[in-house]
Design brief:
- 41% of the residues lie in helices and 15% in strands.
Length: 345
């Protein structure tokens, strides 16, 4: 557990004073809206435990650096991260903050995050998926009193700032469109299992099928990793089924592009023999032939808003959780099945 330079942790102070960690933070930062009796109890606990805020904590309000850090994993398809960076940078520039970047791998540890904060002295952090779902990272930040905001977490927390797209509704809308064309046997290629978006998009697909009285066939749902190669593998797995799917929904555009290329390699005409849809409306969606039907999520706007909320939190505003709607974009990769598909999944 992270300690202050005095040896005690902010959690120990909170427990001794009988208050939340957030309240301790407000007291040591000399923020308003704390009852005098509560403030006195906290200060007594601070004195008794010889607590001193961590040098990297945002409690040192007089030492603000006006810089924001962003932790992100480098995906194989970079356009998603590029849009996140553009959105975060735009808000930082508009508010006089610097944006400090920390690309990460799966081997990221809390110690690495602590070192990044200490070296850069950022005022707060933006955590992108799947880092946003790392409880060891968020626990470190809470106990070190370091401000953060989450982008597309698996689950929201009322005590934390977070912004996400409505993946469930977006996937439901996309599946509804595929059904409206007459498809009933619809394959689904999942994304990276570490990302909450994978589960939410699958949930939207399942919900829509259920709304139409269709039973979900588990064989039509195959694993993926948000990349081109898993799209190719997903196509081959689905095309071996009998009966075959007449349409495939992939969890992102790169995966969908892999499915389209694999279909072409097998002499399967898209969309005449197989319709394919993706997710994100990345540049890949229009570079693939035929261009992909997909879902456009406002990635830059989401990152921009998360940055705004983080900065607002540094100024003492209460945590908020916000959701952005997505838009269906129809293109040439989807059409009606060659033969009306009456098969129920």
């Amino acid at each position: 557990m992270p300690t202050s330079s005095g040896g005690a942790t902010i959690r120990e102070v909170a427990e001794r004073a009988g208050v939340s960690i957030k309240t301790v933070s407000r007291v040591v930062n000399n923020e308003p809206n704390v009852r005098p009796a509560t403030r006195e109890r906290v200060m007594e606990a601070v004195s008794a435990l010889d607590y001193e805020p961590h040098p990297a904590a945002r409690g040192l309000a007089g030492r603000r650096t006006f810089s924001i850090g962003m932790l992100y994993e480098n995906p194989q398809e970079f356009s998603y991260i590029q849009k996140l960076l553009e959105g975060a940078y735009a808000t930082c520039q508009a508010t006089g903050h610097a944006l400090m970047l920390r690309p990460c791998n799966e081997d990221l540890t809390p110690a690495m995050v602590r070192q990044f904060v200490r070296q850069t002295r950022v005022d707060g952090l933006l955590l992108t998926a799947p880092i946003a779902d790392r409880t060891d990272i968020t626990s470190l930040l809470v106990e070190s009193d370091i401000a953060f905001a989450l982008i597309s977490p698996r689950e929201t927390n009322p005590d934390w700032m977070s912004v996400e797209p409505d993946d469930v509704e977006a996937a439901r809308t996309l599946t509804e469109h595929v059904l409206s064309l007459g498809h009933r046997r619809i394959g689904f290629i999942k994304g990276d299992a570490r990302h909450g978006a994978t589960d939410r998009r699958l949930q939207g697909y399942r919900n829509c099928l259920g709304d139409h009285g269709l039973t979900v066939d588990p064989s039509l749902i195959v694993d993926g990793r948000f990349d081109f190669e898993s799209g190719k593998r997903g196509f081959h797995a689905l095309w071996q089924l009998e009966p075959r799917p007449t349409a495939i929904i992939a969890c992102n555009d790169d995966t969908a592009a892999g499915a389209v290329v694999a279909a072409h390699e097998q002499g399967i005409r898209v969309p005449d023999m197989l319709s394919v849809a993706g997710f994100d409306d990345s540049p890949t969606a229009t570079h693939t032939w035929p261009a992909l039907t997909t879902v456009r999520q406002p990635i830059a706007a989401i990152a921009s808003r998360a940055t705004e909320l983080l900065i607002a939190g540094l100024a003492g505003e209460s945590p908020r959780q916000e959701t952005f709607q997505c838009d269906l974009v129809t293109r040439a990769s989807m059409t009606k099945p060659a033969q009306p598909d009456q098969t129920r999944t």
